[in-house]
């Protein structure tokens, strides 16, 4: 009985830390939406785009922030409203937000795993490589065609989406300039990304990158965010600017909302 209880407990914790955890309903800002038929993931995807208030009247090209969990019923309205507030308060420069609406979230946001327990969180997992190819090869060109963009790109995500952010940071760091991850599910595949962090950092590109990540009091995540912070500190890469926000008083379900403003301000303003 104890074995069965432990198995059920693991699945419950895993589902919680791989879920889209932002719960309050946010006002829906003005936005545009389009569909893109992806060959990389083999399905049609809905893309939501928010532009700052003066975008239509100006001629400036803007940086772009990308996010999974980017549906109107997901985190897209919340982040769009947050960016609008920060821009209005002149705490960050204007930028464009691109949200990718989920279809099979846990498939797209998780990488390969050798751990059988990991595979119990969804019918299909391990599709992050194809999802990343969709963003890089299909979505980037479409956004650049439709909007006035600079080459500066960032990505933001929480929980399983935070895992995807960190996996992209380590495996294909050239894709984005800035990475923001809230309580990333670094336990995935026996904390593979943490175990191989030094190896990936040894191959890091020469141009500067920025990464901000936060850890709550979640017992399945906190040890690994702290361990990763220690690795980054020891490696001390000159071209990597990073910040770890240890948040032991925050729960997994609210850390995103509790820390998102300071994460965005630090990352996009390129301070420190």
Going by CATH, what is the homologous superfamily? Alpha/Beta hydrolase fold, catalytic domain
Instruction: Give the SSE string.
Output: HEEEHEHHEHEHHEHEH
CATH class reads: Alpha Beta
Distance between the termini: 52 Å
**Helix/strand/pairing category:** alpha/beta
Total individual domains? 1
**Rounded average pLDDT:** 92
Query: What is the CATH architecture descriptor?
Result: 3-Layer(aba) Sandwich
Helical amount: 25-40%
| CATH topology value | Rossmann fold
Alpha-carbon Rg, integer: 18 Å
- Flag low-confidence runs: 1-16
Which descriptor suits the 3D outline? globular
Tell how many strands the DSSP assignment holds. Answer: 8
Specify the number of helices. 9
What proportion strand?
15-25%
The main pleated sheet reads as: 8 strands, mixed
In spatial order, strands of the major sheet run 1-2-4-3-5-6-7-8
Describe this entry's structure for a reader.
With 272 residues, the protein is of the alpha/beta class. The chain has a single domain, classed as Alpha/Beta hydrolase fold, catalytic domain (Rossmann fold, 3-Layer(aba) Sandwich), CATH 3.40.50. 39% of the residues lie in helices and 21% in strands. It has nine helices and eight strands. The protein has an eight-stranded mixed β-sheet with strand order 1-2-4-3-5-6-7-8, with helices on both faces. Helix 2 packs across helix 9. It is globular, with a radius of gyration of 18 Å. 39% of the residues are buried. The N terminus is likely disordered. This is Esterase. Keywords: Signal. Pfam families: Esterase (PF00756).
């Amino acid at each position: 009985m104890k074995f069965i209880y432990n198995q059920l407990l693991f699945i419950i914790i895993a589902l919680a830390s791989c879920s889209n955890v932002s719960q309050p309903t946010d006002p829906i800002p003005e936005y545009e939406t389009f569909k893109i038929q992806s060959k990389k993931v083999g399905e049609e995807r809905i893309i939501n785009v928010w532009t700052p208030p003066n975008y239509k009247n100006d001629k400036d090209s803007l940086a772009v922030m990308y996010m999974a969990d980017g549906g109107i019923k997901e985190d897209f309205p919340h982040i769009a409203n947050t960016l609008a507030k920060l821009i209005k308060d002149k705490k960050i420069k204007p930028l464009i937000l691109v949200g990718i609406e989920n279809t099979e979230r846990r498939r797209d946001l998780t990488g390969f795993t050798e751990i059988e327990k990991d595979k119990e969180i969804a019918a299909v997992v391990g599709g992050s490589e194809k999802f990343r190819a969709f963003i890089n090869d299909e979505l980037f060109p479409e956004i650049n065609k439709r909007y006035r963009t600079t080459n500066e790109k960032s990505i933001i995500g929480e929980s399983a989406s935070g895992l995807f952010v960190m996996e992209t940071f380590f495996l294909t760091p050239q894709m984005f300039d800035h990475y923001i991850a809230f309580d990333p599910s670094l336990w995935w595949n026996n904390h593979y990304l943490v175990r191989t962090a030094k190896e990936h950092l040894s191959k890091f590109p020469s141009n500067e990158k920025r990464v901000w990540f936060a850890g709550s009091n979640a017992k399945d995540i906190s040890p690994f965010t702290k361990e990763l912070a220690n690795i980054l500190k020891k490696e001390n890469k000159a071209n990597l600017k990073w910040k770890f926000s240890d948040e032991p008083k925050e729960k997994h379900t609210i850390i995103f909302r509790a820390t998102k403003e300071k994460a965005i301000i630090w990352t996009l303003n390129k301070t420190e």
